[in-house]
Amino acid sequence: MSRSYPMRDLPQQVTVHEVGPRDGLQNEAAIVPVEVKAEFVDRLADAGHKVIETTSFVHPRWVPQLADAEELLSRLHRRPGVRYPVLVPNLRGLERALAHGVDEIAVFASATETFAAKNLNRSLETQFDMFEPVVAGALEAGVRVRAYVSMCFGDPWEGDTPIPQVVAVGERLLGLGCYQLSLGDTIGVGTPGHVTALIDAFGSPDRLAVHFHDTYGQALGNTLAALWAGVTTVDASTGGIGGCPYAESATGNLATEDLVWMLRGLGIDTGLDLDKLVTTSTWLAERLGRPSPSRVVQALSKG
Amino acid sequence: MSRSYPMRDLPQQVTVHEVGPRDGLQNEAAIVPVEVKAEFVDRLADAGHKVIETTSFVHPRWVPQLADAEELLSRLHRRPGVRYPVLVPNLRGLERALAHGVDEIAVFASATETFAAKNLNRSLETQFDMFEPVVAGALEAGVRVRAYVSMCFGDPWEGDTPIPQVVAVGERLLGLGCYQLSLGDTIGVGTPGHVTALIDAFGSPDRLAVHFHDTYGQALGNTLAALWAGVTTVDASTGGIGGCPYAESATGNLATEDLVWMLRGLGIDTGLDLDKLVTTSTWLAERLGRPSPSRVVQALSKG
Question: Is the keyword Lyase assigned to this protein (chains A, B) (predicted)?
Fold first, then answer.
């Protein structure tokens, strides 16, 4: 393999927060059998992932792709040292998660008024009424909580999201006791200077993660900018699955493999085995019935 | 449109060296009629491109896609202020180019021994015997010469290309009188720290351009790194055409649209009209019979 070429001012180690089984599969057109999901998660752990967001307790009416959350959790072969967080929208979801021995949850907030209304049926302000009891209940049960903040760079209705508005939402969530914010570019419009400006506006990158979608091809460049700004946790989806289920090889989440290629070249440790990730993505792509949108998977699975 | 978010230490202006008609079309499976090529070049100029690499005088046996170089040049509607360089491999090619009023040419060198042998039938050392008379003849005729250096980051046979070897090849070419080097990551394996290390090794970025292929999804992140290192000329291909002709939507050159999205977000002036580029790429994709691999084109031509 190639040698590495470090760069000034970048972290030495990065945690990849794998979101493929949850954010990836919930946005695929195909509904994947639970035994395939369980194998997918096991393979991700085998490739070295230490954080695998596994499923969601959102009501199956909204996300039929993840209706088998309970059964999936019961089928996992949990490994020591690997975390398997699940997304939890409300107290009912929290009860279900706790009943299945979940060790970490995530809540999903909006940085914009319109998306809060459309996705959560709340306002920017009243969405916290949803999160407060969930976060409090989780912490009381000894379960860590991560918070997604979606539409941090723009949304389809309001244009650019004002940075102070994102910071205000994020600080409310940290104030509730969330251990980390995942700043999401849900529609993929952000560019590197926007990324560093947002991270800098928080004052410290220590409790921030980034979550980029590759809709406009910006995900990896934006990740590089985030690393510069001091972020050390990056969300990615093995194979780049998810995003838009209606177009072939459409682009959703940043592909874990493309991220690992860059980090490995930079000499930044992730603990991940790229070959195993690519093999897993090729295996999953056959089951999804479409090629992986990851460039690295496409390149390495040829010939 | 979104506002821009500048970033420290980046240039205020970037020249996009458009390579679609030459490097793009020569690597497409489809052979495009000359009148479509002429319209493509005209549309690129209309979108604001100031440098459009138009075709190649390589022997048609090697590149049948560009066998119509002479006819294409005769059909161009040349605009004041726009340069239309062509690739020239040898003295015969230079004669043909000069006979058609070409105002700028490019030569194509290798940074590795194996690729020099396979692509040029020369050694790393003897390749300069080809370039010397071509560059001298062009300069004598008042024609500027750009030099491509291919395989600057690695090649399929030798692995990583040693940085001093790239610098030695590049400096020979500058010494012959080439006005600019285009440092090519022909197989797309480079990562950002490798990019900055190579640029820094030249001592100054002033006569350097970068030419990235997106085979492993690294092209735009690498471009960002190059801008940081002071480079202000970036090669790109409108629609991301070229690369591998044998796989649908396979990834070749960095897409001009994806580059412009990033630069526009950073507040870096290119003089390019993104909407016109996207319209051109959508038009060309229909003629090539495959979707554009550019993420921006895919996103903006939906719905």
Answer: yes
Tell me chain B's radius of gyration from C-alpha atoms. Answer: 18
Instruction: Output the tens digit of pLDDT for each of chain B's 303 residues.
Output: 578 999 999 999 999 999 999 999 998 888 899 999 999 999 999 999 999 999 999 888 888 889 999 999 999 999 999 999 999 999 999 999 999 999 999 999 999 999 999 999 999 999 999 999 999 999 999 999 999 999 999 999 999 999 999 999 999 999 999 999 999 999 999 999 999 999 999 999 999 999 999 999 999 999 999 999 999 999 999 999 986 544 444 468 999 999 999 999 999 999 999 999 999 999 999 999 888 989 999 999 864
pTM: 0.96
Least Cα separation, residue B215 to chain A (angstroms): 6
In angstroms, the separation between the Cα of residue B151 and the nearest Cα of chain A is 14
Catalytic residues of A: 244
Contact A224, B192 (CB under 8 A): yes
Is the separation of the CB atoms in A164 and A112 below 8 Å?
no
Q: Which two tokens stand for residue B270?
A: 């290119």
Residues of chain A with C-beta less than 8 angstroms from the C-beta of B265? 190-194, 218
Which residue in B34, B244, B250, B262 is the catalytic one? B244
Domains of chain B (ranges; CATH) run: 15-302 (3.20.20.70)
A2/B189 touch (CB, cutoff 8 Å), yes or no: yes
Contact assessment for residue B202 and residue B175, using Cβ atoms and an 8 Å cutoff: no
